Amino acid sequence: MGTDTRLRGLRWWTELGWRHVVGVVTIVVCVFPLLYALSASVNPAGTLTGSHELFRVLSAENYLELGSTPFLLWMRNSLLVSSLTAVGTVLMGAAAAYAFSRFRFTRRRAGLTTLLLLQMFPQMLAFVAIFLVLLAITEVYPFLGLNSHLGLVCVYLGGALGVNTFLMYGYFNTIPRELDEAARIDGATHAQIFFRIIMRLVAPILTVVGLLSFIGTYSDFVIARVVLQRSEQFTLAIGLYNWGSDERNAPWGEFAAGAVLAAIPVVVLFLFLQRYVVSGLTAGATKG
Amino acid sequence: MALTTSTAPAVTGGRRGLGVGFLVKLVVVGLADALGLYGVLTSLATEQWGILVFLVAILAVVNWAYFSRRAVAAKYLVPGVIFLFAYQIFAIGYTGYVAFTNYGDGHNSTKSDAIEQISMQNEVRVEGSASYPLTVVAQGERLGFAVVVDGEAQLGAPDQPLAPAPDATVAGEQVEAVPGWETLRFVDIASRQAEVTALRVALSDDPADGSLRTQDASTAFVAVPALQYDAEADAFVDTADGTVYTPSERGNFVSEDGEALSPGWRVGVGFDNFGAMVADARMAGPFVQIFLWTFAFAFLSVVTTFALGIFLAVTFNDQRLRGRRIYRSLFILPYAFPGFLSALVWAGMLNDRFGYINVVLFGGADIPWLTDPVLAKASVILVNLWLGFPYMFLICTGALQAVPADLVDAARIDGAGRWQIFRNVTLPFVMVTVTPLLISSFAFNFNNFALIYMLTGGGPNFVGTPYVVGHTDVLISMVYSVAFESGSKQYGVASALSLLIFVMVGVISWLGFRRARRLEEI
Q1: B384: contact with A, CB 8 A cutoff
Q2: Under an 8 A CB cutoff, do A120 and B498 touch?
Q3: Which residues of A touch B87 (CB under 8 A)?
Q4: Which residue did the predictor score with more confidence, B166 or A23?
Q5: What is the pLDDT of residue A240?
Q6: What ipTM was reported for this prediction?
Q7: Selected residues 131-150 of chain B with any CB under 8 Å from a CB in chain A
Q8: pLDDT at res. A12
Q9: Chain A residues with CB inside 8 Å of B273's CB?
Q10: What local confidence, expressed as pLDDT, does residue A27 receive?
Q11: Which of A152, B108, B256, B358 has fewest C-beta within 10 Å?
């Protein structure tokens, strides 16, 4: 192929030009709904009908109005629940991965296989049972039952091992065992090895798992909807759903402003994680 | 060189004693034990036997794991496994149990709860019985009745049968004040009217004695159960006409002519819940439609997103193309934006009367994007295409790197066209690596509750169905509707449907693994 000669005219169009057309059209389609949401968020009309001329007016009114709504409460709830879940997921997943990677115990293989099988059945499929279990728990531990953030976090942590152990297990196996052995000869206990040596060496995978867990929890709708029932307990997903789906007197402007603010943490984390996500996907893919 | 640490405690145990680590462990396990014991006592009091057994087991396992010198691996596995067991394995198992019961509205609790409820709810005033001038008293939220019976002041509350209150001040036939209680004035009563008229104060510990009730908050009368429970015969008897209600297999007290008392209680109903969807003629058609649509939706979602994804990946895989990085990073935007927000934004844009698409792009047309059965399905697929193609684009771009360039060059020299190269060289290579991901994408979309729920809410709804379900509902959103949103909550039926989904997801994943293995062997 002539890589050094620049393509011109018709040849350029058939080889490369059309790709730019496809690219531009795709970008327009990708970006438009997001721009539309941004435009509605700065439009003080605040209704679906009033949001048709994009960026006709620029006003912070919708954003300021969020202050008098439960939005900030929902944001706080979402951040709280997602952070707790992320920390818990990382700790429990790392501990389990350490056990599977470093110790040889009876039923170890069976345990790994069970986790692999459980991975196929996402927890959200059992939301009816989760609701009923929490209904029963409410009578014993009200702070872990329905309508409590801690109860919701516990439910999410129930899904922590199934999804993340394998990802971490693979990474833990790449840390040389000689390190453990050296430390053990120096008199370190298994707990010291875990907290002082291994946890530091696997920090990258801990970050990735923690952030992925954060994003997943932040965006979860079904389980949060089943567990949380009062407006002041809502997470962003449920609160904004109530605004966005309210067709008649929809606070559309506030919804759009809320959506823009709610999306920021996820988009930022995603851009930060993109490298890991993409390489993780493709690494998994090429391995088959 | 496997480290058999669990069999060599002398080496792994290291120093034992009062190190900081040991103290931390002691405090944490101690707190867990305290929490557990509190739960054991509460579940004893509230008769939650399942939780009680679970807690006792956990307490045993936790203390064994953390105070035994052996079980090293268990120390690291126990916390995660407890949560996994309680909220995933048990939840799945419980789904299996509930699926065979009639748990749901009208059958929410145990038989003894149902007996209590029925006795309480069916009360009539005793004919010709005395009425007493009544004083309504309160302790914060808690209401009580104070009356004068045979010249003696008596006080009672819902949780406390009528008992003498010797230190109350009495004015004539009426109690004026009771120490420790606030006497409610007329305005207070008016604002809590519903509470006051619903209040019943038992005359004694025996429910058959009846209770004190009021309708106007100024006089109280004695009401006795209209239905008397006969523990020996395990039946309710109507005190007025002597009708006997006996327990039925369906978990209700039923009279001979078929009249059932409500509420009932939870009983096993065998496989009835599994047939519930097709047994009801009003539901059979919609159920079959939803079932087929679920497969169609998942299949079309995968096919459309994959087709667009691989098309874009191949198109922008050309080294000579400028600005590839910019294109790629902008293509990922829909994937980076939280999906639940995108779905809601699209729902607003597709609104048939006020949405941007109809009003601006179609010049004020009235296209029922989300309210026509066929168009709504198309909209759901298109919005999911928007949401999902970036993921496919990413994995296809990755997979393309595995296609040997010399193979493509060889094909080109042999005179193969673009399409032929794609069809016979690129696609087979890509398929090997992405097939497992396509299968998991299928399984994900099979249960894509959030998209359906946020975009259409399952609508447009079918007419005349006993459950609120619509043309774009998939099985999982149908489960949600049956369990929570259809007026009468039917957890049993919903769980049976969930099991159906479990089985299908299992089969799909299993096929996926097998297929992936076969492709790898090529």
Answers
A1: no
A2: no
A3: 123, 130, 133, 154-155, 157-159
A4: A23
A5: 92
A6: 0.89
A7: none
A8: 85
A9: none
A10: 94
A11: B256
Mapping DSSP onto H, E and C, the string for B62-125 reads HHHHHHCCCCHHHHHHHHHHHHHHHHHHHHHHHHHHHCCECCECCECCCHHHHHHHHHHHCEEE
Higher pLDDT, B19 or B76: B76
Terminal alpha carbon distance of chain B:
34
Answer whether B447 sits within 8 Å of A125, measured CB to CB.
yes
The tokens describing B432, both together, are 């090997």
Binary contact (B402, A274; C-beta < 8 A): no
Closest-CA distance, A77 to chain B, in angstroms, reads 17
User: B129 in contact with A at a CB cutoff of 8 Å?
Assistant: no
List the single residue in A with minimal CA-CA distance to B360: A52
B155-194 as b/e, with b when 16 or more CB fall inside 10 Å?
A: bbbeeebbeebeebebeeeebebbeebeebeeeebeebee
With bands split at pLDDT 50, 70 and 90, how would you rate the model's confidence at A276? low
For residue B110, what are the CA distances in angstroms to A236, B26, B102, B263, B494? 37, 40, 12, 10, 20
pLDDT (0 to 100) of residue B364: 81
Cis link prior to B460 (omega < 30° from 0)?
A: yes
Mean pLDDT of B398-410: 88
pLDDT tier at B291, thresholds 50, 70, 90: very high
The Cα of A60 is separated from the nearest Cα of chain B by a number of Å equal to 19
| pLDDT tens for each residue of B416-456 | 888 999 999 999 989 988 888 888 899 899 999 999 999 99
Does A196 lie at the interface with B, CB-CB under 8 angstroms?
no
Look at A187 and B15 and tell me if their CB atoms are within 8 Å.
Answer: yes
Q: Quick check: B334 contacting A, CB < 8 Å? A: yes
Amino acid identity at B204:
S
Query: Nearest Cβ partner of B5 from A103, A192, A247?
Result: A103
A contact test, residue of B340, B361, B395 with most A CBs within 10 A: B340
Cβ(A86)–Cβ(A211) under 8 Å? Answer: yes
Question: CB contact, 8 Å: A250 with chain B?
Answer: yes
pLDDT tens digits, one per residue of B467-494: 999 999 999 999 999 999 887 889 999 9
Q: Which two tokens stand for residue A249?
A: 């007197």
CB-nearest partner of A140 from B46, B316, B354? B46
pLDDT given at position A285: 32
Give the integer Cα–Cα distance in Å for B11 and B66: 17
Q: Give residue A23's identity as a one-letter amino acid code.
A: G
| B216, burial (CB in 10 Å: exposed 0-12, middle 13-18, buried 19+) | exposed
Higher pLDDT, B377 or A106: B377
Cβ pair B344:A118 closer than 8 A: no
Q: How many CA atoms lie within 13 A of A41 on its CB side?
A: 20
Q: What predicted TM-score, i.e. pTM, was given to this entire model?
A: 0.84
CA distance B486 to B467: 5
Separation of alpha carbons B261 and B246, rounded Å = 10
B323 touches chain A (CB under 8 A): yes
More confident residue, B309 or B21: B309
B247 three-state secondary structure: strand
Query: Are B144 and B138 a contacting pair, CB within 8 Å?
Result: yes
Kind and range of the H or E element at A192?
Answer: helix A190-192
pLDDT tens-digit series, residues B331-349:
988 988 998 899 999 998 9
